[in-house]
Design a protein that fits this description.
heterodimer; A: mainly alpha; B: alpha/beta; 7-stranded mixed beta sheet; 5-stranded parallel beta sheet; about 45% helix; globular
Chain lengths: ~290, ~400
């Protein structure tokens, strides 16, 4: 029982990170039609800044805030200088550009901070004993922080005027403009929010893995699996998809095979998509021929 | 008319200058080429391909720094038999195709007489046909390699790296000698790791036939070791052997500490890296592993010389294991080339390696080559993490022969 609890908590913590990154991807995609592959690499830049600040004696929490700020600013710069000039509806061009930005960001991180792995500090140390299992405090904190962040995003989109405006732009940018909503301003807010969530997820994930320029490639990959599983257009889907991937991944590693964990997760995702191509919570779109 | 004459003079002057430059350059090039071919050059030109950018740069950059420090120190002391060493390193980004192009540049344009201290197994293999077969240029002291490189020996290919299989054998023997009766090998799932992990059982049983060895395959680049450590805990082994990369080993150690796993843990050379301690911190304490060189913190004069040279010639670089390994390979090359009487040509280097029966670089095992033995050593250095630092444990150790 304690082993199951341990594996479950670890899976939920991992899934919470995938959910945060996936949520960021979906928010940006819905607001601007851009699948932002650069998100993870930009968040990695933020992590390196946080580690540099830590090395200069700055508190870890302040470093995390700096990481989020740097990621958001870098992301907005990318949007304004590279993505926005493309114009609306350039899905594939934007996709390739974000891939390029991702490679540039990874290369820059390697050049500035070197390629040797660096440790990223845990926000909390130690374990919490529960039902005979020693649960890592960092995993519990990850779950709590991710839950609060997701709840705040839910509140923003469900209960505030800004959230309503962002949903309106997501439905139709042209209609939103006609009724007086500033599409570009809302797009910038969506990018900032998405990148901030990704950076938060990265800060929660980093203590587990060593900090190298390509550190977030695997979580980004799993976040994509989560949003396709949950539905590319659904914010709830991104969260639940990410959590599902994290939990299944760990359960498969423990009860099936530690080397077939990805195979198990992605086989499950393919099966779900065969039954529901739009994902668990996505909406099916139809186009006239 | 006057203007036309003036223009003609300028043009003629320019042509004359260009012709003179071309003739001088041609003469120099011809001279260089002739010198390189005959081995009468004032310097010994050698080259290497090393990943200085990309995912594997973390290994290539310190390796280059260590060898650079050695060659700079050597040149400052007068070089090899009065000849300076001119080591040209090109970044192959760990790409085999790029490595072939680099090999063509090094041999065709830079006129190197040997490839020394290059990096990458598949990368070198891609260049073998051009370098070894076509150009007859030796590849020596390569970082990487496999058993097939040396059985049977290939003309011009000489290695200084104890094979991963022998590293696993050495770790297995160490665990059994420490009293382990049940060993669990935790390894990454790509074939390169599986093959190494498979070497543990036969050697462990050779040391003690009653030993039980199991293997647990883990997805490559796993960061969440919670389920893996849970499985290890359930198996209740006496010792765990990690055939993982350094970040993976660090993730394992951190999780093992969280779950209160107290079994003795061993690793092969990739685990014995500074990054394992940097990432795992206290969880790495007591970790045992094998290395190809002595611990860089050792007080021995040969290691002290390395640290001094690194501080002087490569001040921005860490004087760690990888740098010491690069240093050691450079030193082995220099000691062998020093025995050459006459021109230092590709053929002379190959011949000198075949006759090098006892090369002692001080920081790594004594290398013994022969006409039919192109791999210099099977030995390793046992190292242990004590107070956050890798320290050597005993002298170099040769594991039991593998079947």
């Amino acid at each position: 029982m304690s082993q199951f609890l341990l594996v479950l908590v670890s899976g939920v913590a991992g899934g919470a990170v995938y959910g945060l990154i996936g949520l960021g991807l979906v928010i940006i995609y819905r607001a601007t039609d851009v699948v932002n592959f650069a998100m993870a690499s930009l968040a990695t830049l933020g992590l390196y800044v946080a580690v540099s600040l830590r090395d200069r004696g700055v508190a870890t929490v302040l470093g995390v805030l700096a990481a989020i700020t740097i990621t958001v600013v870098a992301g907005l710069l990318v949007r304004e200088t590279v993505i926005r000039p493309l114009g609306q509806g350039q899905l594939f061009s934007a996709l390739v550009l974000t891939m390029g930005v991702s490679l540039v960001a990874e290369s820059a991180a390697g050049s500035i901070w070197g390629d040797q792995p660096k440790a990223f500090p845990s926000l909390v140390e130690g374990t919490v004993r529960w039902s005979g299992a020693a649960l890592p405090a960092q995993s519990l904190l990850t779950i709590a922080v991710a839950a609060v962040a997701m709840a705040l995003v839910g509140y923003l989109f469900g209960r505030t005027t800004l959230g309503s405006a962002m949903r309106a732009v997501a439905e139709s940018a042209d209609t939103a403009r006609v009724v007086g909503l500033g599409a570009q301003r809302l797009a910038r807010i969506a990018w900032a929010l998405g990148l901030g969530l990704a950076a938060l997820g990265a800060c929660l994930y980093a203590p587990r893995a060593g900090l190298v320029p390509t550190m977030l490639s695997a979580p980004l990959f799993r976040a994509f699996a989560g949003i396709f599983l949950g539905g590319l257009t659904s914010m709830y889907g991104a969260v639940i998809g990410g959590l599902t991937v994290g939990v299944l991944d760990n359960l498969a590693a423990n009860y099936v095979s530690a080397s077939l964990r990805d195979t198990f997760v992605f086989s499950f995702t393919v099966l779900v998509l065969l039954v529901r191509p739009q994902g668990m919570f996505g909406t099916r779109t139809f186009q006239r021929v | 008319m006057l203007r036309r004459t003036s223009r003609f003079r300028r043009t003629a002057g320019a042509v004359a200058v260009l012709a003179a430059v071309a003739l001088t350059a041609g003469a120099c090039a011809g001279q260089d080429s002739a010198e390189a071919g005959s081995g009468q050059q004032s310097s010994i030109r050698i080259g290497a391909w090393i990943p200085l950018t990309g995912a594997v740069a973390a290994y290539g950059v310190p390796q280059k720094a260590g060898a650079d420090a050695y060659f700079k120190m050597l040149n400052a002391q007068g070089g090899i038999n009065g000849r300076k060493v001119d080591w040209t390193v090109k970044d192959n980004a760990f790409d085999p195709q790029q490595t072939v192009q680099i090999a063509r540049q090094l041999i065709g344009q830079d006129k190197v007489v040997a490839i020394v201290n290059a990096n990458g197994t598949a990368q070198a293999e891609a260049a073998f046909p051009f370098v070894l077969t076509q150009s007859k240029v030796p590849i020596v002291d390569e970082q990487g390699g496999s058993e097939s490189w040396y059985r049977p020996p290939r003309p011009g290919l000489f290695g200084t790296q104890t094979l991963y299989e022998d590293q696993a054998a050495a770790v297995a023997a160490w665990a059994v000698q420490d009293g382990a009766k049940k060993i669990l090998v935790v390894h990454s799932d790509p074939a390169a790791f599986v093959n190494v992990a498979k070497q543990v059982e036969p050697v462990a049983k050779k040391v003690d036939p009653s030993v039980v060895v199991d293997r647990l395959a883990v997805k490559f680049q796993t960061t969440d070791y919670t389920p893996v450590v849970s499985k290890v805990k359930a198996e209740k082994p006496d010792a765990v052997i990690l055939i993982l990369t350094s970040p993976e080993a660090a993730a394992y150690l951190k999780e093992a500490r969280l779950q209160g796993l107290a079994q003795a843990t061993y690793g092969y050379a990739p685990v014995a890296a500074e990054s394992t301690i940097a990432l795992a911190k206290n969880a790495a304490e007591g970790l045992k592993a094998v290395q190809l060189v002595k611990a860089p913190s050792d007080a021995e004069p040969a290691v002290q010389e390395f640290r001094t040279a690194m501080a002087k010639y490569e001040p921005g670089q860490d004087a760690g294991f990888l740098a010491l390994w690069g240093w050691s390979n450079a030193k082995v090359f220099a000691q062998i080339v020093k025995t050459i009487k006459g021109p230092v040509t590709s053929a002379a280097i190959t011949e000198a390696y075949e006759k090098a029966t006892a090369v002692d670089p001080g920081v790594s095992p004594v290398m013994r080559f022969g006409a039919n033995d192109h791999l210099g050593t099977r030995s390793v250095q046992r190292v242990v993490v004590k107070k956050g630092v890798w320290v050597s444990s005993g002298d170099f150790y040769t594991p039991p022969a593998r079947d």
